[in-house]
Amino acid sequence: MIKKRNDVADVAWGLGFVLLAWASFYLGDASGERALMVCLLVSIWGVRLAWHIYWRNRGKPEDYRYQQWRIEWGKWFYLRSYLQVYLLQGALLFSIVLPVLLINRNNGGSLNSLDFIGLAVWLLGFYFETVADAQLARFTKDPANKGKLLQRGLWAYSRHPNYFGEISQWWGIWLVALSVPFGAFTIIGPLTITYLILHVSGIPMLEKKMEKNHEFAEYKKKTSRFIPWPPCTISSR
Fold it and tell me: Using one digit for the tens of pLDDT, what is the confidence trace for 5-43?
């Protein structure tokens, strides 16, 4: 309300995961390499994402999605913002971070092969998210690219390589959680973030905006929607 912009929630999103990870680490008396590893992974991801979004939004108007809600929600804007942006986001955040919370409740043993597989998946996802974000930032910063769509680098293999990276990181952490009792049941975490990005607030909203660009129809034909794949003529993969 002070800043008159709801997209501060986007900056807080990644930091919320960091807060819950370390709070559960200390309150749960966690010990061992596994708990420490996942808390560090979440911290690297969350801090980087928060900084990226803050820097991207700095000096710009409020994100278009939140601006649209201001119009649609009218006199109920503040109440619906509190419920649908902040409280709902908190609940979703808690669901996604469940693998980390469970790991921090189990002292566990030494790292095993499953932990390293999960770490490898996380590293792959982190590469895709950070590199894709950096490529997009450089592209949009160049005035010569105004009105164009980025179709080079990782963006030639997926229309949303950064989202692919984010989802992969949470599946990697879930693989690590399989090493502790009942870890399989925390699959609700990666399933939640996957569903949100693929069907709710991620790709659908962004592609609706991208459809206004004259280059999008051709880009959609040759580029995979989500999973990185060599450019072709088949869309909606």
Answer: 888 888 999 999 999 999 999 887 666 899 999 999 999
> Which residue intervals of 33-187 are DSSP H helices?
33-57, 64-73, 77-80, 88-96, 98-103, 113-141, 161-177
pLDDT at 235: 45
pLDDT of residue 30: 65
What single letter denotes the amino acid at residue 80? R
Residue 208: count of CB within 10 angstroms of its CB: 9
- In whole angstroms, what is the distance from residue 157 CA to residue 153 CA? 8
Query: With the C-alpha atoms ordered 72, 74, 76, 82, is the resulting torsion angle positive or negative?
Result: positive
Measured CA angle at 160 (ends 53, 67), to 5 deg? 45
Tell me how far apart the alpha carbons of residues 33 and 183 are, in angstroms, rounded to a whole number. Answer: 16
Residue 204: other Cβ atoms inside 10 A: 11
Domain residue ranges of the chain, discontinuous segments joined by +: 8-222
